[in-house]
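User: MurNAc alpha-1-phosphate uridylyltransferase. Structure?
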Amino acid sequence: MSRQQTIRPVPRGTVPETAMVMAAGLGKRMRPLTATRPKPLVKVAGKPLIDHVFARLQAAGIKRAVVNVHYLADTLEAHVTDRFDGIDVVISDERKMLMETGGGLVQARGLLGDAPVLVVNSDNLWIDGPVDAIKLLASRWDDAKMDALLLMVPLARAHNHRGPGDFYLAADGRISGRRKSGRLAPFAYTGIQILHPRLIADWPEGPFSTNLFWDRAIAAGRAYGQVHQGLWFDVGTPAAIPRTEAILADG
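Assistant: Predicted structure:
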């Protein structure tokens, strides 16, 4: 069989029924585009960032999405309500206080259920590689040994990303540590993960980062990473938009 005729098997694994889409941020780095719209509604390649995310959720078979809202919440809520076929959208309301990523999970905890959930940042834009990235994550999930499974991309392939990397991975995929001060880490977090709600426990009052939960999982040896096989773009600033669109236009 020729290379062109090779059929890649679809990864086997139970895709989470529920996703949480992180969409409540202020979008400060995307100013002035976010002066009149929330960042998830900034358009890239002809459609809002959050629509790109929902297209991936639909393709993977996600049935329910919890979307948190804060900045220009009415606009964002109106956009996502009854818009995406096959996905029931539920709003987690952070209008009174922006809770950050960890606090956002706590705020939405009662909406997430007790099974593993997909958590996705709404300012991500990714292209699947040989297989669907969400299904690939689901195929790697092992409930007996994982509380968090993060999709990562090699730092050299993190388009528009200016950070020094985030994590080190062991040969078995376990997250062996975070980036050390003054050094680069080989993998950047893509903003896409499967998280078990049992990890959402013993939280502080007020806003805080998901790093609190990750650090616990890493210390317990229950945080893993999966390397993304396709393209990934950090679309955090206005300048990143034309660069992203140029790469996408090249196919």
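The first helix runs from residue 49 to 60. The domain at 18-250 is CATH 3.90.550.10 (Spore Coat Polysaccharide Biosynthesis Protein SpsA; Chain A).
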